[in-house]
């Protein structure tokens, strides 16, 4: 059989990505389920779950991811519909407000949040000035701070997921519902929302997966008092040099992340340009 | 003038929606605006609203060696990673757009896998490999390769889309009319894919320049990128210097953002979520 140069090129490019992304992840998964004595053992996972700090971190990570996902839905709908309904100029301005923060480093944004919610920060100053509180509220280094920061990080993903679906809705549908006497809330909740469900489920899977595995934001805003799974991973690897536990935590993050993101890809088909062209 | 109840309701609804959208826009912009404002304060500590106006924190940032060194590392890493990513991504897109190449589905899956595996896991997994093979000394190369592969999908998608969109038979026509493969590529294929390559390259550069999650696992003592260095400096710097550096990073990112907006448009993000 003759091998075409294009096949060879594809093989080489694929190998680079395979060796750099898939092989290391597979190594992590395999090593996390083997110990010195036995080829297969869940000992590392058992020691992680035996630790109260780790169990709390896992629960905290789930709570935060659920809260962040709900906030991103609440924020995503008005923003996505406003973008879809605006005239070109307002539309690109709104889109810019959503996408520019999306490009910024998590460190940069966390620094901004530090000043907004810090002890001498903006919110405390306003509340003190209004006489609503007597002493500054401690908002930094808490779950609240992490939720705020991750919501800021992930709202754009929800907006873009919803927008992809909203743009495909025929504008006549809304007009028809209105002319048939549906009130605006009815048009929105009973006509528009059901049509956006594919975008909503895609956005939910994506935001949840990214919230579970976010690293820099919880690290900077949660501090050491509210560790999540990713900060635990960093601590095991770089502070306590506990590689078996680090591998197990990485294994948990990998499985959760891959499961949700594969599901997301399966329902959007968005990754495949081939389908768009077909 | 009287309104029908339905009109009132419509107005009330529009007002409520406008307020909600306004609230979330403020939420998205608040940390950015606040950080930039604070960088101009004349006080010795970060405070909002800033008191007085001063550029001293910018002067302070520019004169600090850790800022200049990590900025240089970040710029070189981002540039090298983007170059490598463009080479791999356009080659990958080319192979995916040809007909009758075996294993295209598998190749697509492998090249898109950075979007499926969490960044923190990619970072940690590479760190684990680096330690096992004792590759810490070449941390610069590790960073470049990691960023290049993680940003592969950003190049692959727009280029692949424009290759499929452009008429494939054009290149074959050029070839049959006597063009060399290089000429056919240079005059037919390249102009079709260039906008996608440029957009993908800018997004890749911006990603690499802003990344912490992958970089934090791979940097060495002399190869700390700007966001990673900033992350540790924020804790030990009580004055507003980090605010000035934050504002500089934002400004650089904003320039790239505007280039994308003006050239290919923000649609590219809406499509590539």
Describe it:
The complex is a heterodimer of chains A (278) and B (273). Chain A is mainly alpha-helical. Chain A has one domain (40-269): Orthogonal Bundle (MetI-like fold). Helices cover 78% and strands 0% of the residues of chain A. Chain A is built from 14 helices and no strands. The longest helix of chain A has 34 residues, at 52-85. The model of chain A has no long low-confidence stretch (mean pLDDT 88). With 273 residues, chain B is an all-alpha fold. Chain B has a single domain (56-272), classed as MetI-like fold, CATH 1.10.3720. Chain B contains 13 helices and no strands. In chain B, helix 7 packs antiparallel against helix 9 (181-210), helix 8 (168-176) packs antiparallel against helix 9 (181-210) and helix 9 (181-210) packs antiparallel against helix 12. The radius of gyration of chain B is 24 Å and the shape is globular.
Give the number of DSSP strands of chain B: 0
Distance between the termini of chain B: 47 Å
Fourth-tier CATH superfamily name of chain B:
MetI-like
Biggest chain contact: A-B, 99 and 95 residues
- How far the N terminus sits from the C terminus of chain A, by CA atoms, comes to 30 Å
What's the short story on this structure?
The complex is a heterodimer of chains A (278) and B (273). Chain A is built from 14 helices and no strands.
Layout of helices and strands:
The complex is a heterodimer of chains A (278) and B (273).
Chain A: H1 5-32, H2 43-50, H3 52-85, H4 88-103, H5 106-117, H6 122-129, H7 143-166, H8 171-179, H9 184-195, H10 197-213, H11 216-222, H12 229-238, H13 243-268, H14 273-277
Helix pairs in contact in A: 1-13, 2-13, 3-4, 3-7, 3-10, 4-7, 5-7, 5-11, 7-10, 7-11, 8-9, 10-13, 12-13
Chain B: H1 5-38, H2 56-63, H3 65-97, H4 104-112, H5 119-132, H6 139-150, H7 152-165, H8 168-176, H9 181-210, H10 215-218, H11 226-236, H12 241-263, H13 267-272
């Amino acid at each position: 059989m003759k091998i075409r140069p294009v096949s060879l090129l594809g093989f080489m490019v694929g190998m680079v990505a395979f060796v750099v992304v898939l092989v290391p992840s597979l190594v992590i998964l395999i090593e996390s389920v083997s110990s010195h004595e036995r080829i297969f053992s869940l000992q590392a996972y058992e020691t992680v779950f035996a630790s109260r700090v780790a169990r709390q971190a896992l629960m905290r990570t789930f709570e935060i991811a659920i809260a962040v996902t709900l906030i991103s839905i609440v924020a995503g709908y008005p923003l996505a519909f406003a973008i879809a309904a605006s005239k070109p100029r307002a539309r690109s301005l709104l889109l810019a407000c959503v996408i520019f923060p999306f490009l910024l480093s998590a460190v940069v944004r966390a620094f901004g949040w530090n000043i907004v919610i810090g002890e001498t920060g903006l919110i405390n100053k306003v509340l003190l000035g209004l006489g609503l509180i007597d002493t500054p509220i401690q908002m930094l280094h808490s779950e609240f701070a992490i939720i705020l920061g991750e919501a800021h990080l992930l709202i754009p993903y929800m907006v873009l997921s919803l927008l992809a679906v909203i743009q495909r809705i025929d504008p006549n549908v809304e007009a028809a519902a209105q002319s048939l006497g549906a009130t605006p809330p009815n048009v929105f909740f009973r006509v528009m929302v059901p049509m956006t469900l594919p975008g909503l489920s895609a956005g939910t899977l994506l935001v949840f997966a990214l919230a579970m595995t976010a690293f820099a934001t919880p690290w900077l805003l949660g501090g050491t008092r509210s560790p999540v799974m990713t900060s635990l991973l960093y601590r095991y690897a770089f502070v306590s040099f506990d590689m078996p536990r680090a591998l197990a935590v990485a294994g948990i993050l990998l499985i959760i992340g891959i499961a949700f993101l594969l599901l997301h890809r399966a329902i959007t088909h968005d990754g495949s340009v081939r389908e768009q062209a077909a | 003038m009287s309104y029908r109840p339905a009109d009132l309701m419509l107005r009330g609804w529009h007002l409520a929606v406008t307020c909600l959208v306004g609230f979330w826009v403020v939420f998205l912009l608040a940390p950015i605006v606040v950080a930039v404002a604070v960088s101009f304060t004349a006080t010795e500590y970060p405070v909002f609203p800033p008191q007085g106006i001063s550029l001293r924190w910018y002067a302070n940032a520019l004169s600090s060696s850790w800022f200049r060194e990590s900025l240089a590392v970040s710029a070189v890493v981002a540039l090298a990673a983007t170059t490598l990513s463009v080479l791999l991504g356009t080659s990958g897109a080319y192979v995916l757009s040809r007909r009758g190449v075996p294993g295209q589905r598998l190749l697509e899956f492998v090249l898109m896998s950075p979007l499926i595996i969490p960044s923190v896991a990619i970072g940690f997994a590479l760190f684990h490999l680096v330690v096992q093979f004792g590759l810490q000394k070449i941390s610069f190369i590790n960073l470049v390769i990691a960023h290049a592969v993680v940003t592969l999908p950003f190049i692959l998608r727009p280029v692949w889309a424009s290759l499929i969109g452009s008429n494939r038979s054009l290149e074959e026509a050029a070839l049959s009319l006597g063009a060399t493969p290089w000429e056919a590529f240079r005059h037919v294929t390249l102009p079709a894919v260039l906008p996608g390559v440029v957009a993908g390259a800018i997004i890749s550069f911006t990603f690499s320049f802003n990344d912490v999650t992958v970089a934090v696992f791979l940097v060495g003592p002399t190869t700390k990128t700007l966001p990673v260095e900033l992350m540790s400096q924020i804790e030990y710097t009580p004055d507003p210097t980090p605010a000035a550096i934050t504002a500089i990073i934002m400004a650089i990112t904003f320039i790239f953002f505007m280039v994308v907006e003006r050239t290919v448009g923000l649609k590219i993000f809406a499509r590539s979520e």
